[in-house]
Design brief:
The protein is of the alpha+beta class and 277 residues long. The protein contains seven helices and 16 strands. Strand 7, helix 4 and strand 8 form a beta-alpha-beta unit.
Length: 277
């Protein structure tokens, strides 16, 4: 579990975590009526910040929450939170709920003041020398997975099942087609070509995955967006899970199926070097 650092941001103020309090009538608490972003920070610099801010704004618009900050204000908030927690390597979690209403009602009051919470957490390194394992599970989430909603119960249950058998994630499957991981995106490698599920309402547009695809493309690898069957997933030369705090994790076994030769593959090694450079 990533440990939170000392100082958080709440509605424009910076204060110790223990002193941050949110109303029990906040719609994020009552309904999961909120969106979030996670931004990795290395040597005090937030990675892919513009892409994360853009996705945050897109999610807010999708559920009709007024964006409480412009891009520069978001940058300033995140930068100051990093500085107040000592800089270095960490992850910044930002959550925006619709706000606190007068009571519990599925129909929300228009023009509520959004609740903005941000915290920094530890971000450790990863040793992917031996690769990681994953499982497959049915995708039981809602139909708008392109919105980065805090309503993550299906993801939590899937991730818990994966953890119970020592896997890093559950790869979700909808009618024999791979969507994404419970907490990651999925890329496969076939004959040195990277393939991922196309963006759509069934998957979150991954900022890290987009970055990985761009890096690989610049390095000369072909990259394609195609729907992936489970059979194709299991027959791939390499399978990767990507995410803001995960980086690029090479999968060497899915369920009982060994991927490739059971070791992180050469394309992963080449692209991961570029990613970490």
């Amino acid at each position: 579990m990533a440990q939170p650092l000392a100082i958080v941001g709440l509605n424009g103020k910076f204060l110790p975590l223990a002193e941050a309090h949110i109303s029990p009538l906040d719609r994020g608490f009552l309904f999961g009526d909120a969106i979030y972003e996670v931004v990795p920070v290395h040597d005090g610099e937030p990675a892919l910040l513009a892409a994360h801010i853009t996705r945050l704004d897109r999610s807010l618009r999708a559920i009709n929450i007024r964006n409480p900050h412009n891009d520069n204000e978001w940058r300033s908030l995140i930068t100051e939170l990093i500085e107040r927690n000592g800089g270095g390597t960490m992850a910044i979690y930002v959550q925006v709920s619709r706000g606190t209403d007068a009571g519990r009602n599925h129909v929300y009051t228009e023009n509520l003041r959004p609740t903005v919470f941000a915290m920094a957490t530890e971000l450790g390194g990863h040793d992917y020398t031996a690769g990681v394992t994953a499982i497959t599970l049915p995708d039981e989430r809602w139909a708008r997975c392109d919105i980065k909603s805090t309503a993550l119960l299906p993801n939590i249950l899937a991730r818990q099942k994966a953890a119970a058998v020592g896997a890093v994630d559950a790869i979700l499957v909808d009618h024999d087609y791979v969507t994404e991981g419970a907490v990651s995106s999925v890329i496969i490698v076939e004959h040195e070509t990277l393939v991922r599920t196309p963006h759509g309402t069934e998957v979150l547009p991954g900022t890290t995955t987009d970055h990985v695809i761009a890096i690989a493309g610049d390095a000369g690898y072909a990259c394609q967006d195609q729907r992936l069957t489970v059979a194709r997933l299991l027959a791939a030369d390499e399978v990767w899970l990507t995410g803001a705090t995960k980086g690029i994790a090479p999968v060497v076994r899915i369920d009982e199926q060994i991927i490739g030769d059971g070791l992180p593959g050469p394309v992963w090694a080449a692209v991961n070097r570029l990613y970490e450079a």
